[in-house]
Specification:
By secondary structure, the protein is of the alpha/beta class. Helix content is about 40%, strand content about 20%. The protein is built from 27 helices and 30 strands. Strands 5, 6, 10, 11, 12, 13, 14 and 15 form an 8-stranded mixed β-sheet that branches. Helix 21 links the parallel strand 27 and strand 28. The chain is globular and about 85 Å long.
Length: about 775
């Protein structure tokens, strides 16, 4: 077999090593445009898990690499005169040049032919090759040459960054967040060998301009950074090596394979430096390709296995990198945070680390986080323990005069089980059991303000006396048997009305028995959906009056809170989104105009809803579609509602148009809550694939939301919150007297179960290489 590899970076060299090990007789040649000892950048960083992978696949190169590494366990966060160190992370750094020389030496040992200072721009010279690896880096000419086939997407990020080095020794992966007269600067720094450390400087484009960095050369830029971070550099100089300021390109390619050519490393996909995964991804690409070549019957099959088997892991890493880089791009949102909360946000920014696993590795740090959160709660008038505080999920919260005992919320979820809008026994059990189960706040499903406002024939409503009586029965039960508060969510389906029950075909139009639907504009949801009638002024008045009448009924029922549904493509959302609002009158066009009718409804509700009771609004913070609502729009929307008197923004996303492309994942909507809360400066509730109390604690402690709504966990477990209270020892959690023996037992059992699980996790966690090295260098105790 003949293999040509274009690009002598980590991906190309490691692939050559692994393929040559598999097939000693293969003719494998690497072509690199630079000299053998050229390198751009300073150090590379790997986790212990990545090194484990290297050890498994090529022991000789692994041993040489690890002999050259600098190891550390701690991450140090410097912010506003404080430093917080978090241990147990298991990282190691190595000179990029040293890494390349080690891989070159190992490749030669195996018989790989290496050619340097050879610039390849035409693969036809390798017509006789069985396999061509395109590992020519982030600016891959072959990816661009065949762009129509590979379909790359390059997202050039806003922040400016420059890669430099220093002689400053470091004993931790170090983040420095530095305030300047021009704005915030960030340093990401780590030691990669004795006497040398990597420094990546980052700032937003506005600060970059104000600091006068535009047009400066490397030496001048280094001098400016030395001025800003001189207090920490402590006299050590900054080193440059092609250290020009640039924007990071996030690269994704829809295809990785063309004929017998395959993209590897940065040529196919990049990951932001804030999670240190570029070289890791490149070398793990090589591992995945070699594994595929070992298992598949031929090269074509192997490339297919590589592309489809590897893509999920690459995309997961890129998603984590995306979340991380966005945090750094918007660090100004958190600049007024308490420093310990800020440091917690740094640690948990990419969702890879959560509250519970951080508590295992850095219990003292998390104890600080708990105390800081409790102090914030106490400053809002609650008499709580700040010396031995409860976890954030079980801290109280106030909206106007409504106080909730904890921040676990049962999300509004349509049950599609009402008869002519009347909630029945199913609803009594559904809401009553979740309230008894311990949630601080429960939401009704979207309750429709008129018969024609329903989504489906099974939707609950509040437009007549029978419905009011049934809802009052539910509210009375909740208040009489639990400590939960209950919020009434009012909405109008708009163009998504007259559709089938969810389990019969979600959002599909009824075959019979439908009703006329209305919207901001006459645009059907599906091509075969009913075309809605565009609301005129008389229609708007009628809708407004039906909302007001429903709110007045809700007050008579005794609901503690009222929410206006302006999300998910329903009537009011159809006014807000430009994808569903094509009006040319004063209710269309600009965002200000598109918000006009939803705000009219909200203001009319606020006028009749008691002043001591809070109101919230549910919004879609993005339409997940080109030309639709964005996160920045969501901030403006939240501010407009806040000015109208909203107390809480319930941040959801999407469901506006059928061709939306949502990016799902754990806590996938939380970043939008984070943005709205910390830019619009309004309380938020987050929702969306939040499944554990651990995740809820992470979100709250990091300041990404004030309440956490959980949907599906509550569907299968009405006592989700009580179980979480037992797990975290929240003894004050309310329990009906009939259930107290059960509460006592689960609290006793949970103490033991938690201790057992933590002990198992600690025992199962292998010691980091930094810990092992530290132990190996300790002097033996005298006998």
């Amino acid at each position: 077999m003949k293999v040509a590899i274009i690009g002598g970076g980590p991906a190309g060299l490691y692939a050559a090593i692994l393929l040559k090990k598999q097939r000693p007789s293969a003719d494998i040649t690497v072509y690199e445009r630079n000299r053998a000892d050229d390198t751009f950048g300073f150090g590379v960083v790997f986790s212990d898990a990545t090194l484990d992978n290297f050890e498994k696949h090529d022991l000789p190169s692994y041993r040489r690499i690890t002999q050259e590494f600098a190891y550390w366990d701690d991450i140090a966060v410097h912010f506003r005169g404080t430093v917080h160190r978090v241990g147990g992370n298991g990282f190691c750094g190595c000179s990029r040049q040293k890494l390349l020389l080690i891989l070159q030496e190992r490749a030669r040992e195996l018989g790989v032919v290496l050619h340097f200072e050879v610039d390849i721009d035409d693969e036809s010279r390798f017509a006789d090759a069985d396999l061509i690896l395109l590992a020519d880096g982030v600016n891959s000419r072959f990816r661009e040459k065949y762009a129509e086939h590979f379909q790359p997407e390059v997202d050039l990020r806003a922040n400016k960054f420059a890669w430099m080095g220093s002689t400053r020794p470091l004993d931790a992966f170090t983040f420095i967040f530095q305030e300047t007269e021009w704005g915030p600067f960030i340093a990401h720094a780590y030691q990669y060998e004795a006497g040398h450390s990597t420094w990546i400087f980052e700032t937003d484009p506005q600060t970059f301009e104000r600091a006068g960095l535009t047009g400066l050369n490397e030496t001048q830029s280094a001098a400016r950074m030395a001025e800003i971070f001189g207090w920490f550099l402590d006299g050590h100089r900054l080193l440059t090596n092609r250290s020009m300021w640039r924007n990071f390109p996030m690269i994704r390619s829809k295809r990785w394979v063309k004929d017998n050519m395959v993209l590897l490393g940065d040529a196919k996909a990049s990951a932001h430096f804030s999670i240190g995964s570029g070289t890791k991804l490149a070398m793990e690409d090589a591992i995945a390709l070699a594994d595929a070549m070992a298992k598949a019957p031929d090269i074509t099959a192997a490339l297919d296995v590589y592309e489809h088997g590897r893509r999920e892991e690459v995309e997961k890493t890129q998603h984590a990198a995306d979340v991380s880089l966005v945090w750094f791009e918007h660090v100004d949102r958190f600049w007024d945070f308490d420093p310990v909360q800020f440091a917690f946000g740094v640690m948990t920014r990419s969702k890879a680390i959560t509250y519970d696993n951080l508590k295992l590795r850095a219990p003292d740090f998390v104890a600080e986080v708990e105390k800081s959160f409790a102090q914030q709660v106490r400053s809002n008038g609650f008499d709580i323990d700040i010396d031995k505080p409860m976890v954030p999920l079980f801290q109280p919260f106030r909206l106007r005069e409504m106080e909730v005992a904890n921040r676990a919320v049962m999300s509004p979820m349509c049950m599609y089980s009402a008869k002519e809008g009347v909630p029945g026994d199913f609803h009594l059990v559904h809401y009553g059991s979740r309230a008894i189960g311990g949630a601080g706040l429960i939401f009704t499903e979207m309750t429709c303000v008129s018969r024609d406002a329903r989504i489906t024939p099974g939707c609950a409503g509040l437009w007549n006396d029978e419905q009011e009586t049934s809802w009052r029965r539910i509210v009375d039960f909740v208040h009489g048997n639990s400590a939960a508060k209950i919020c009434l969510q009012l909405g109008h389906a708009g163009r998504k009305g007259a559709t089938k029950l969810m389990w019969d075909g979600i959002d599909r139009p009824l075959d019979e028995g439908g009703w006329d639907v209305v919207s901001a504009s006459p645009l059907p949801y599906f091509p075969d959906s009913q075309v809605p009638r565009e609301l005129d002024r008389a229609g708007m008045n009628a809708v407004r009056d039906s909302f007001v009448a429903a709110a007045e009924r809700g007050e008579r029922c005794g609901f503690d809170m009222l929410e206006l549904h302006c999300a998910h493509g329903y009537l009011l959302a159809s006014f807000i989104s430009p994808l569903t609002n094509a009006r040319t009158d004063e209710y269309g066009g600009s965002l200000e105009n598109r918000l006009r009718f939803p705000l009219e409804i909200f203001e009319a509700l606020r006028a009749v809803w008691p002043k001591h009771k809070p109101m919230s609004v549910r919004i879609s913070a993005t339409d997940w579609a080109d030309g639709g609502i964005t996160g920045d729009d969501a901030v403006a929307i939240a501010r407009a509602f806040a000015e109208a008197g909203v107390d809480l923004v319930d941040v959801s996303t999407g469901q506006t148009v059928r061709d939306a492309q949502p990016v799902y994942g754990r806590m996938f909507q939380t970043p939008f809550s984070d943005q709205v809360r910390n830019e619009a400066r309004v309380a938020t509730m987050c929702v969306g694939n939040i499944t554990t109390a651990d995740q809820a604690n992470t979100i709250l402690a990091a300041g990404r939301a004030d309440l956490v709504a959980l949907g599906r966990p509550h569907l299968v477990d009405p006592f989700f919150t009580m179980k979480a209270a037992a797990w975290y020892g929240a003894n004050e959690a309310f329990c009906p007297p009939q259930y107290l023996p059960g509460k006592d037992q689960i609290f006793r059992n949970s103490i033991r179960d938690r201790q057992d699980l933590e002990e198992l996790r600690i025992k199962a966690k292998p010691k980091t290489r930094a810990e092992l090295r530290s132990e190996a260098t300790k002097p033996l105790a005298a006998e």
